[in-house]
Write a structure and sequence with these properties.
Layout (H helix, E strand, L loop, with lengths): L1 H11 L3 H17 L5 E3 L8 E6 L3 E4 L11 E4 L2 E15 L1 H4 L4 E9 L56 E8 L4 E7 L11 E6 H4 L9 E9 L5 E10 L12 E4 L4 E4 L9 E6 L10 E2 L2 E4 L5 E11 L7 E10 L3
Parallel strand pairs: 12-18
Antiparallel strand pairs: 1-11, 2-5, 3-4, 4-11, 5-10, 6-9, 6-11, 7-8, 7-10, 13-16, 14-15, 14-17, 17-18
Length: about 325
């Protein structure tokens, strides 16, 4: 009723400016109802948040080194279960977000930046509440692709000469009742901004599959990587994303037999971690013949082939998107 009244005011010109302002206000209020909630802003400034190490990881408050830098927590992981933790003295109620499939827990991070942590030395760089007993073993989230092996806990980067890049980011959450959930994502599935910071998203609805609860009161966030290079965490927040996946396989083209043909997949994915899979001949059924945004293929015989790109949500939250192109393969001269 209110929306119809506002539109009527604008159409009749009774108070166009006022009507427009009210309409914009109504839209803004709707957007604010689904706005992000900042859990950590990069700096431990009061007694409500405490940071410390987890397992064999090392943590400290990062120093700003340039005008474009922001406050951040510097974490030096040593495998998927050794990194840094952020404790909330008063648990944060995220029940509504965990029950909505459109919400993500987002880590704003930068990888491999210059570190002020001395390689090969442990220790806790900040006051902490004390690490809990060893966490019970937990299964991986459905649909997550396996990561590569990591160094044994406690192994110094001084022995390898340089830090090992992180390919996957591990997120572990502890709630006020002592329950844990965990998940990991492929870092390469997210694109860094011009300033080097990357928004890494974990679907909250998928995280809660491990342990359904009546209330989700977040007590602790643990961030780890499968390498040993530094991870700077600038912000931890919730993010609302109701967008759908789209896919684009590129343009149709003509090639010659045995040419090395490149394919580049793209599309809109919002906050999702997306897997791009390719099939190079639709006539024999859609199969997963290659995986990646950029792949290569050689056609061994002449003819016309339908190449199919499927963009899939790694956690199955969003419906897959499909794009097809036609490839005409000519006989070699």
């Amino acid at each position: 009723m209110m929306r119809n009244s506002i539109i009527k005011w604008i159409k009749t010109g009774v108070s166009g400016v006022v009507g427009a302002v009210l309409l914009i206000s109504m839209v803004c209020l709707s957007a604010n109802a689904q706005s992000s909630k900042v859990l950590f802003g990069g700096k431990v400034t009061d007694k409500s948040i405490v940071a410390g190490s987890w397992g064999g990881g090392v943590v400290k408050q990062a120093a700003k080194v340039g005008y474009r830098d922001s406050d951040s927590l510097e974490i030096k992981p040593n495998g998927l279960f050794a990194g840094g933790r952020i404790d909330f003295v008063k648990p944060i109620d995220l029940t509504s977000e965990f029950n909505d499939k459109n919400y993500y827990l987002q880590i704003v991070a930068r990888f491999g930046s210059d570190s002020s942590i001395t390689p090969g030395f442990g220790g806790i760089g900040m006051p902490s509440l004390g690490a809990p007993p060893t966490m019970p073993g937990m299964g991986g989230m459905p649909g997550v692709m396996g990561g590569r092996g990591t160094m044994a806990p406690g192994m110094s980067t001084a022995l390898t000469g340089r830090p090992i890049p992180n390919k996957r980011l591990q997120l572990i959450l502890e709630f006020d009742n002592g329950q844990f959930v965990e998940s990991e994502v492929n870092i390469a599935a997210f694109t860094a901004g011009d300033d080097g910071w990357t928004d890494i998203s974990f679907p909250m609805f998928a995280l809660k599959r491990g342990i359904p609860m009546d209330n989700y009161l977040l007590k602790r966030v643990i961030v780890c990587g499968d390498g040993t290079e530094v991870i700077n965490v600038r912000e931890i927040r919730t993010d609302f994303d109701s967008s759908v996946l789209t896919a684009y396989a590129g343009d149709s083209k003509e090639v010659a037999i045995n040419d090395r043909v490149s394919f580049m997949g793209s599309g809109d994915k919002g906050s999702s971690s997306v897997i791009y899979s390719w099939d190079f001949d639709k006539s024999d059924g859609i199969q997963q013949e290659a995986i990646g945004e950029i792949v290569y293929h050689r056609f061994r015989q002449a003819g016309t082939f339908i190449v199919t790109l499927t963009a899939s949500d790694e956690f199955g939250i969003k419906e897959p998107a499909v794009s097809e192109i036609e490839i005409i393969v000519n006989k070699a001269d």
